[in-house]
Hints:
The chain is globular, with a radius of gyration of 23 Å. The longest helix is centred in the last third of the chain and has 19 residues, at 444-462. It starts with a strand and ends in a 5-residue tail after the last helix. The chain has a five-stranded mixed beta sheet. It is an alpha+beta fold. The chain has 18 helices and 20 strands. It has three domains: 1-183, Roll (Ubiquitin-like (UB roll)); 239-352, 2-Layer Sandwich (Uridine Diphospho-n-acetylenolpyruvylglucosamine Reductase, domain 3), CATH 3.30.465.10; 359-472, Enolase-like, domain 1 (2-Layer Sandwich). Strand 3 (49-55) and strand 4 (62-68) form a beta hairpin.
Amino acid sequence: MSVRFLLDGEVVTIDDVDPTATLLDFLRYRLGRTGTKEGCAEGDCGACTVLVGSLKEAADGVAWRALNSCILFLPMMQGKALLTVESLGGCSALTPLQQVMAANGSSQCGFCTPGFVMALHGRAIGAQGCDLPVEDVIAGNLCRCTGYGPILAAAEAVPRLERDDSATVAALEALAATHGVGGTHGARQWFAPQTGWELCEVLAAHSDARMVAGATDVGLWVTKGLREFECLVFLGDVAELRGIDETDESLTIGAAVTYAEAHAALGRLHPDMGELVRRIGGLQVRSAATIGGNIANGSPIGDGPPALIALGATLTLRSVAGRRTMPLEDYFLDYGKQDRAPGEFVESIHIPRPAPGDVIQITKLSRRFDSDISAVCGAIRLGMEGNVIREARVAFGGMAATPRRAPLCEAALNGQLLSDDTLEAAAHALRQDFTPLSDVRGSAEYRLDVAANLLRRLWLRRHGVCVSVLDIEHADG
């Protein structure tokens, strides 16, 4: 079956779709739109940024997202709208943003400039994340020669733009599929189901298929690892995986909800959770990466699972046989191994809302502040009765083969007064919970030191002392 999407309001039809062909390559080599650049081919530099629009689920209009086209597979464009830097009018009709950037020295070699322009144009037209500070909007864009001062100044100088998407809405409605789509490319197959039951049936028939949500991991397996997949199932259009249900008692998030979409709701659980999400990649990555994908892949350094485990999240999996729910920590069995049977998929994550008296601290430690993989991600939740710790949940990523809790540390906390001495004892117990590896992000001793220091930091923060984790106790870099 063909893939059809809108480019500048015109329908583009692609026959015989290679399911792992990237949008970036299609733009450059098939359409000659070379304004979109390949810088890293792994979603890190933002030079390939485009704007992708889809029909809003709860209101009229188009929901635009800035995405990295280098790790966006062509089937993921089915029924979407696309804008590239050429869509903005070219040299004869620069946008106000482009005019300011040209005048104030925002571009030197110009290689990264189209990506900055598209990320900031998204901000100007109200794309996802447009309410974030400019620094956050372009945190996923790298410039190697100009420096960011003029770029930030240009963005601040340009007002929001009014965009009439009525024609785009009508065209997208005409493209909308009423049931799942799919196709073949040689011996390879791909599917894009629309409903949860369609997904169940596809996976029952193709239990070895690779599921793809945002492709922020799988995209790298293809562009960097040169892996090939015989069968792919794209999850982005499955309605049941796209919901957010927020109540006074809990938050339930569908597995295909992106981090950008869930950012505000997760921040309402606790400010530290919101700050953690803000640092999960740049905006382009957060606008693609999904809550469920981050869990399903089972990476030991995924940022979401430690925090969700500490908050007591449960996971619901689904297949043709029905649903089952488990504590999130039980899903991770060993490195590269999760408790997911053939034909099952992650459907949703349920997070109890913390009690008003809970003490919570969630911290990501990485070499770069923005757009970097964690060396250690630690999450602590202390359920309190007065000044006594009723229940401690302490979870870490980057410390073991899976994200997991620290049972000896928790035992040292449970039933104790919340005090400096208690947290010091827990910090020492924590060192017995993990035997981390040394790698380019940090030595084993560094990881043990900073993880223990996070407990000490909790006490200092409660007493109004702001201090670096590394300043608390000596740790090697």
